[in-house]
Amino acid sequence: TDPGAIRNFCIIAHIDHGKSTLADRMLQLTEVVDARQMRAQYLDRMDIERERGITIKSQAVRMPWTVREGERTGESAVLNMIDTPGHVDFTYEVSRSLAACEGAILLVDAAQGIEAQTLANLYLAMENDLQIIPVLNKIDLPAAQPEKYAEELAHLIGCEPEDCLKVSGKTGAGVAHLLDEVVRQLPAPKGDADAPARAMIFDSVYDIYRGVVTYIRVIDGKIEARDRIKMMSTGAVHELLEIGVISPEMLKGPALGVGEVGYLITGVKDVRQSRVGDTVTINARPAREALGGYKDPRPMVYSGLYPIDGSDYPALREALDKLKLNDAALVYEPESSAALGFGFRCGFLGLLHLEIIQERLEREFGLDLISTAPNVVYRVQIEGGDEVTVTNPSEFPAGKIASIWEPTVRATILAPNDYVGAVMELCQGRRGQLKGMDYLSSERVELRYTLPLAEIIYDFFDQLKSRTKGYASLDYEPSGEQESDLVKVDILLHGDPVDAFSAIVHKDKAYNYGVTIASKLQKLIPRQQFEVPIQAAIGSRIIARETIRAIRKDVLAKCYGGDISRKRKLLEKQKEGKKRMKMVGRVEVPQEAFIAALNTS
Ligand code: GTP
């Protein structure tokens, strides 16, 4: 294809603003999918794919389009629509998808206006120098206020309100005009056709039948079906088994040239061998320099995953091995805990990534799991000694510490004017630093904060929602590290530390953490034959204490004679409890107590 006829674009939108619906209309209008085949959310096929055991996602679709009206009527183009992953943990993947495009459709619900995710993605698109087409969607809705939000959008990106297109993905109104504008407004890709080939990987997906399917955007040169390709980050060389485009199914082709978007298959079995952001070149005539922007996926949040039934441990290992094939960011290694038995310490891109993995392990592999409280990665400089990376609070060095560094995020929060005070209070309570504040309109405010990642991985989003009656939206991305005054709090049961409850927290919050966990355990752990102190400690200094008082072991003592069935029930309960008791030092603790304490923290 002549690069001059190619337009590579993505749609950026806040969740539920109608991206999938609009994409469906485009597939239909361009006749890539005909009306009969059309099923709602063609691009969103995860569930169906899962049923069929196929995991291919249409990360990019090629659509032919001829300008219908206005200037340049009759001009033919090839549109490549590239999908961007939808949530905060995958900022890097989003940035690579954007880097594969020349332009972006900024889609905003005309009844909702701009939201945090819209902004965060817009900033990423601007960093990648994309041309932006502002579009208001859902104009068919009675509640739509396209004029009002056109002002907001125009103000934000520095255009005129009239430049904002108005469409309805549902009825199809304005969508053909939008495609015409994509051809007219977005630049064609530029690249050197005679240079050694360079293509950027913007996604890589494992398929059980075909191995890894890699999505690429060619920048320079040409990759042909018979080439041997080379991954520039590792130097690994692979035989090319197939190359082609997706429209909307995989169509094998002879080659991909400058500006083209498509897939390649090499037979590798693990997405780690074909990494997002890497540069593909040709082994016979390799490019000298890789394209910029490659980053190794780096886990930001760690948590211990334990099977509730200890005999599921091998099944958990197998399931993780399988998920890893399709997830370059997932890392794990075996660990054991006095409280929870054998499990794995797993690293994730963020809390949502953790939740997705945990849910897949439970749903697709039928495992019952308990996860320990998530923690971030700390860098600890020991006085006069080494620097250590701490991914598990129990590995926190014991000696004198010179400094501790924790990861931070740059958060974008959008809220109605009335809730600015509530948002600021929340952020300050989470050690946030206000970096900027802008009025998008007279009633909507954008707040930019730097926050410690550790402070937002628990319940920040829930808190934000509840304090703003659901009106605020949040997005964030990693923004480096900061030195902080952090301490490790241990929880001791009858003098023995319980590893699953150790936490690294800010000095000012240590007392609170200690009191909360200690009182929770005090309620959850049954009385023993002797008195059991529960203590929270920083090093050897005790900061909180609760006591479980001693009782006689005979649980029947509780039922003053009387009801026999109640007695039997209690006896059974006692027996039942025995089975799942863990010994922590001399104290018998039902595993359920740990699970309950971890779940509510
Ligand atoms: P995620 O994939 O969850 O991020 O959402 P999305 O942005 O892809 O939105 P989706 O296309 O799933 O649409 C969200 C909801 O808005 C659905 O209930 C759609 O039916 C509805 N919707 C989308 N476009 C329109 C539109 O133009 N008009 C109206 N009335 N509803 C629409």
TrEMBL record:
<feature type="domain" description="Tr-type G">
    <location>
        <begin position="4"/>
        <end position="190"/>
    </location>
</feature>
<feature type="binding site">
    <location>
        <begin position="16"/>
        <end position="21"/>
    </location>
    <ligand>
        <name>GTP</name>
    </ligand>
</feature>
<dbReference type="GO" id="GO:0003924">
    <property type="term" value="F:GTPase activity"/>
</dbReference>
<dbReference type="Pfam" id="PF00679">
    <property type="entry name" value="EFG_C"/>
</dbReference>
<dbReference type="Pfam" id="PF06421">
    <property type="entry name" value="LepA_C"/>
</dbReference>
<feature type="binding site">
    <location>
        <begin position="137"/>
        <end position="140"/>
    </location>
    <ligand>
        <name>GTP</name>
    </ligand>
</feature>
<dbReference type="InterPro" id="IPR035647">
    <property type="entry name" value="EFG_III/V"/>
</dbReference>
<keyword id="KW-0472">Membrane</keyword>
<dbReference type="Pfam" id="PF03144">
    <property type="entry name" value="GTP_EFTU_D2"/>
</dbReference>
<dbReference type="GO" id="GO:0003746">
    <property type="term" value="F:translation elongation factor activity"/>
</dbReference>
<dbReference type="GO" id="GO:0045727">
    <property type="term" value="P:positive regulation of translation"/>
</dbReference>
<comment type="similarity">
    <text>Belongs to the TRAFAC class translation factor GTPase superfamily. Classic translation factor GTPase family. LepA subfamily.</text>
</comment>
<dbReference type="InterPro" id="IPR035654">
    <property type="entry name" value="LepA_IV"/>
</dbReference>
<comment type="function">
    <text>Required for accurate and efficient protein synthesis under certain stress conditions. May act as a fidelity factor of the translation reaction, by catalyzing a one-codon backward translocation of tRNAs on improperly translocated ribosomes. Back-translocation proceeds from a post-translocation (POST) complex to a pre-translocation (PRE) complex, thus giving elongation factor G a second chance to translocate the tRNAs correctly. Binds to ribosomes in a GTP-dependent manner.</text>
</comment>
<keyword id="KW-0378">Hydrolase</keyword>
<protein>
    <recommendedName>
        <fullName>Elongation factor 4</fullName>
        <ecNumber>3.6.5.n1</ecNumber>
    </recommendedName>
</protein>
<dbReference type="GO" id="GO:0005886">
    <property type="term" value="C:plasma membrane"/>
</dbReference>
<dbReference type="InterPro" id="IPR006297">
    <property type="entry name" value="EF-4"/>
</dbReference>
<dbReference type="InterPro" id="IPR000640">
    <property type="entry name" value="EFG_V-like"/>
</dbReference>
<dbReference type="InterPro" id="IPR031157">
    <property type="entry name" value="G_TR_CS"/>
</dbReference>
<keyword id="KW-0342">GTP-binding</keyword>
<dbReference type="GO" id="GO:0043022">
    <property type="term" value="F:ribosome binding"/>
</dbReference>
<dbReference type="InterPro" id="IPR009000">
    <property type="entry name" value="Transl_B-barrel_sf"/>
</dbReference>
<dbReference type="InterPro" id="IPR005225">
    <property type="entry name" value="Small_GTP-bd"/>
</dbReference>
<dbReference type="InterPro" id="IPR013842">
    <property type="entry name" value="LepA_CTD"/>
</dbReference>
<dbReference type="Pfam" id="PF00009">
    <property type="entry name" value="GTP_EFTU"/>
</dbReference>
<keyword id="KW-1003">Cell membrane</keyword>
<comment type="similarity">
    <text>Belongs to the GTP-binding elongation factor family. LepA subfamily.</text>
</comment>
<keyword id="KW-0547">Nucleotide-binding</keyword>
<dbReference type="GO" id="GO:0005525">
    <property type="term" value="F:GTP binding"/>
</dbReference>
<dbReference type="InterPro" id="IPR027417">
    <property type="entry name" value="P-loop_NTPase"/>
</dbReference>
<keyword id="KW-0648">Protein biosynthesis</keyword>
<dbReference type="InterPro" id="IPR004161">
    <property type="entry name" value="EFTu-like_2"/>
</dbReference>
<dbReference type="InterPro" id="IPR000795">
    <property type="entry name" value="T_Tr_GTP-bd_dom"/>
</dbReference>
<dbReference type="InterPro" id="IPR038363">
    <property type="entry name" value="LepA_C_sf"/>
</dbReference>
